[in-house]
Design brief:
Elements (H helix, E strand, L loop, with lengths): L8 E3 L2 E3 L13 H17 L5 H28 L4 H6 L3 E5 H5 L8 E7 L5 H5 L16 H6 L6 H7 L3 E7 L6 E6 L2 E9 L22 H20 L3 H20 L12 H14 L5 H13 L7 E2 L27 E2 L14 H27 L5 H6 L18 E8 L3 H26 L2 E6 L17 H5 L1 E10 L12 H10 L12 E8 L15 H14 L2 H62 L1 H28 L8 H13 L5 H12 L4 H11 L23 H6 L7 H13 L21 E2 L5 E2 L6 E3 L10 E6 L2 E6 L14
Parallel strand pairs: 4-7, 8-9
Antiparallel strand pairs: 1-2, 3-4, 5-6, 6-7, 10-12, 10-13, 11-12, 14-15, 16-18, 17-18
Helix pairs in contact: 8-10, 9-10, 9-11, 10-11, 11-12, 14-16
């Protein structure tokens, strides 16, 4: 069992322990060590360290600055009238923080320094402000503005400015943390001022002791917090030399990755150097024995999966009871912090206070991308035959992780903020103030009040003026200008209208943020301008893409084509088009099939017609051939008819008929008999009697119906005309009247005979109209009247009481109530069938 790993550290007289337990304390396996060799090759070629000459230059500059600072402290002590011993012991120390203090040693990196002075030195002594020069130093042509710019020649700021190796000197006295920025022998220096509540600063001054913060002001507290945090981080990761070197290696890699991906700027809402140091130190506490390649992969995994807003902390905050505010997760002010990262030194504070929801979205996307790249490299490397061997040995396979961001081709819309000033010094101070407020424009104004899917501020400045040509700017303003770009993507679902108006947000930013700058001189301005992705100036692509804007647009098209969402939409569109084409082909096939069937039917009809015509021609030919035979047959029939007529004459003569009729007269009588004109003598007499008088209309209609064989029922006549026709509903009464009922076998045999008989064709149709209006009723199968709800008759099987205007009786329509005094004519429904 391996020995337990102790990550505690003692610093400033206090023992510090990690806030989180170790996740995996095992050493990296051999395959990860081999994978790390490829990373080492990449680091040696692409992440170089500061040269020996550069390191010596930095050390030499720091020594000169320390000497100059101590001389300045002695001059202030002497000016205060202190004794020689007090002046000699006043001291004054220069401390470093940040990447230089940790030993990252990146070429061209700045050095964060803090001068710690005793209480006899003030901020006015440090900056030399408020100095009134003697009259002899005022020239006749000097005005009031020039006198205000003169600083105390004995101040540290003026001593540094007058040094021959110093350039680009910029004092920022009005900031929350006063600072001097300058270049000393080409090395950028940020010098902070810290005034202790003590009469002297000895050489063995322990800045890590919490008691140094007793009685200091807010700016001194923040200035001292820099070296105190750096020293505590170094102590927590410095258990062994190998572990500390692993920490430095990963810090250098993460810093390079953050700068390439546009994530390195604390004041613009991303991570700064201190934040990266804390994040890598936390991962090292979780995996203390991992090699750099493994630790880098774990770094992206940890922060890809981190549950924000849970704070990132190396050690639990403690209170030294000096009255300074300590970060507490349960305070109301901390509830709104998006991604807190707590400094380990007292007083604990959130070092990522500027991170907003929008910038956290960008950070999380980049963490996920970094993890995907490194994890894929590791898995492909394990397979052995996927990656190019030369790229593995040279470390080129790691270049994908550090590729520059595609910020300028990732958004459809961009907003430029061009910051101009009347002079170089004014432009530098004005730009510093505006840049520190840009994150509020992005997060508070644009990000919260506009329907945007995503918004990103690019943290790198461009020394160019991209304002409108119509802007009234002087040549000095255009020369002393810098530009920042903001990319954004509109959420069309939340959009109201077709245009996005950002004028109000820009006005509020100028009114509530930029107006705080003092002194605001004429010529200081911020000029916004919107661009489409294809309208961006060429300066945006020069340092990122080898082919400039043309190469950037080609890569943009390639990324668009490779977008999974676009590919899916394209495939769906292609599939829909294919389905539409298949449906058209199917429909065309069906139409073709129908056309073929129609052609076949036409051909069949033609064949049938031809066959029918052929049969007709054949039949006509047969008729022509058999014409002679027909003549012979007719002759034979005439002979047979003559013989028959002769036999009938003999029968007539033998019957003793008084009146002898010729054949022609007998034929006429036969035809009349068939037509019903020849009746018995009684009928002839009745008919003759009836024809002697003129028939009434009712009699004529009755005779017409009777001749048609219809059943007539009237009030004064119950005779059934055409009684030989039995209605279907009367079959039951027929059997009941004594008609012999057929046996089932006989009935079945009779039905089969009836079915075998051919169905007679109806050749004649008769239509007639009635002049008399009948009350039409319907009868059911039993012959009972179906009540239609009329007012003349109400069927009822029993007397239910007196009803006015009606009488209860058994009448022609059945038993029920009949209207008094009205006759009811009920024609048979047979007449309407």
């Amino acid at each position: 069992m391996p020995p337990p790993i102790d990550l505690t550290a003692t610093i400033g007289g206090r023992k510090v322990t990690p806030a989180l337990p170790i996740v995996d304390g095992s050493s990296s396996p051999p395959n990860e060590l081999k994978f790390n060799a490829s990373l080492s090759s990449f680091i040696s070629q692409n992440v170089p360290l500061e040269s020996v000459e550069g390191i010596r230059t930095r050390e030499r500059v720091l020594v000169k600055m320390g000497t100059l600072s101590r001389e300045w402290v002695k001059s202030v002590a002497a000016k205060r009238g202190l004794s020689a011993d007090a002046v000699a012991s006043a001291g004054g120390e220069l401390f470093t923080s940040g990447s230089y203090r940790l030993g990252v040693h990146e070429p061209g990196a700045d050095i964060d320094t803090i001068v710690v002075v005793p209480s006899i030195c003030t901020k006015e002594d440090f900056f030399g402000s408020g100095y009134v020069p003697p009259d002899s130093m005022v020239q006749d042509d000097d005005d009031e503005d020039v006198n205000n710019e003169i600083r105390d020649p004995d101040s540290l700021a003026e001593r540094i400015r007058r040094h021959p190796d110093v350039t680009n000197f910029i004092p920022v006295e009005g900031a929350a943390v006063p600072i001097l920025t300058f270049d000393w022998e080409g090395i950028n220096i940020d010098l902070l001022f810290a005034r202790l509540n003590a009469p002297s600063v000895p050489a063995n001054f322990d800045i890590d002791n919490d008691m140094v913060l007793s009685g200091v002001d807010s700016s001194t507290e923040k200035s001292l917090n820099g070296p105190r945090v750096t020293n505590l981080i170094a102590a927590l990761v410095g258990g062994t030399e190998e572990r500390y070197q692993t920490f430095l290696t990963v810090v250098r890699l993460v810093r390079k990755w953050a700068k390439a991906r546009g994530l390195y700027s604390n004041k613009l809402g991303y991570w700064g150097g201190v934040n990266i140091n804390i994040a890598v130190a936390l991962v090292l506490q979780l995996y203390p024995n991992a090699c750099p390649a493994s630790l880098l992969r774990k770094f992206f995994l940890v922060f890809k999966s981190w549950r924000w807003p849970n704070p990132v902390m190396l050690t639990k905050p403690h209170d030294a009871e000096l009255g300074l505010p300590v970060w507490n997760a349960f305070q109301a002010a901390t509830m709104r912090q998006v991604a807190p990262m707590i400094t380990p030194a007292y007083p604990a504070m959130n070092s990522t206070l500027s991170v907003s929801r929008q910038t956290l979205q960008i950070l999380h996307e980049e963490f996920a991308r970094g993890h995907n790249v490194v994890d894929k490299l590791y898995k492909d490397w394990q397979k052995g035959d996927v990656l190019d061997k030369e790229k593995v040995e040279s470390g080129e396979m790691w270049k994908e992780l550090f590729e520059p961001s595609d910020f300028f081709i990732s958004y459809p819309h961009y907003l430029s903020m061009c910051i101009v000033g009347p002079s170089q010094s004014d432009a530098q101070s004005w730009a510093g103030f505006v840049v520190s407020r840009l994150r509020k424009l992005v997060s508070d104004q644009l990000g919260r009040s506009l329907p945007l899917k995503k918004i990103q501020l690019w943290p790198k400045e461009f020394s160019a003026c991209v304002a409108e040509r119509s802007a009234l700017l002087t040549h000095a303003q255009r020369a002393n200008s810098i530009t920042y770009f903001i990319g954004f993507r509109v959420d069309t679902l939340r959009m109201r209208g077709s245009e996005l108006d950002i004028e109000r947000q820009l006005q509020n930013f100028s009114k509530f943020e930029l107006s705080r700058f003092h002194p605001l001189t004429p010529g200081m301005d911020v000029l916004p301008k919107t661009f489409g992705v294809k309208e961006l100036p060429k300066v945006c692509f020069e340092d990122v893409y080898e082919g400039g804007k043309v190469a950037a647009m080609k890569r943009r098209r390639m990324l668009i084509e490779a977008d999974p969402k676009r590919i899916e939409a394209k495939n769906k569109k292609k599939l829909a088009k294919l389905k539409k084409k298949m449906e058209a082909m199917k429909r065309k096939k069906e139409e073709s099939k129908a056309s073929e069937e129609k052609v076949e039917a036409d051909m069949k009809e033609e064949v049938d017609a031809e066959a029918q015509e052929s049969r007709k021609r054949k039949r006509d030919g047969d008729d022509a051939n058999g014409e002679d035979d027909n003549l012979d047959a007719e002759k034979e029939e005439e002979e047979e008819a003559a013989l028959l007529e002769s036999a009938l004459d003999k029968i007539q003569d033998s019957a003793g008929v008084v009146q002898h009729k010729t054949r022609e007269e007998a034929e006429i009588d036969r035809q009349k008999l068939l037509a019903g004109e020849l009746l018995h003598d009684e009928d002839v007499e009745v008919k003759t009697e009836k024809r002697d008088r003129k028939l009434t209309r009712e009699e004529m209609e009755k005779e017409m119906l009777a001749s048609s064989g219809l059943v007539i029922v009237s009030d004064d006549e119950a005779t059934i005309v055409g009684g030989n026709k039995i209605l279907p509903w009367r079959y039951g009464y027929k059997n009941a009247a004594g008609v012999k009922k057929e046996e089932p076998d006989q009935k079945k045999e009779k039905e089969e005979q009836e079915e075998s008989k051919p169905t007679p064709l109806i050749t004649n149709r008769v239509a007639f109209k009635f002049k008399t209006k009948f009350d039409v009723v319907e009868l059911d199968e039993s012959g009972k009247v179906i009540d239609k709800g009329d007012d003349d008759f109400t069927p009822s099987l029993k007397w239910t009481g007196r009803k006015g205007g009606f009488e209860f009786k058994l009448g022609e329509r059945g038993l029920g109530y009949y209207r008094t005094g009205k006759k009811v004519v009920i024609p048979s429904n047979m007449a309407y069938s």
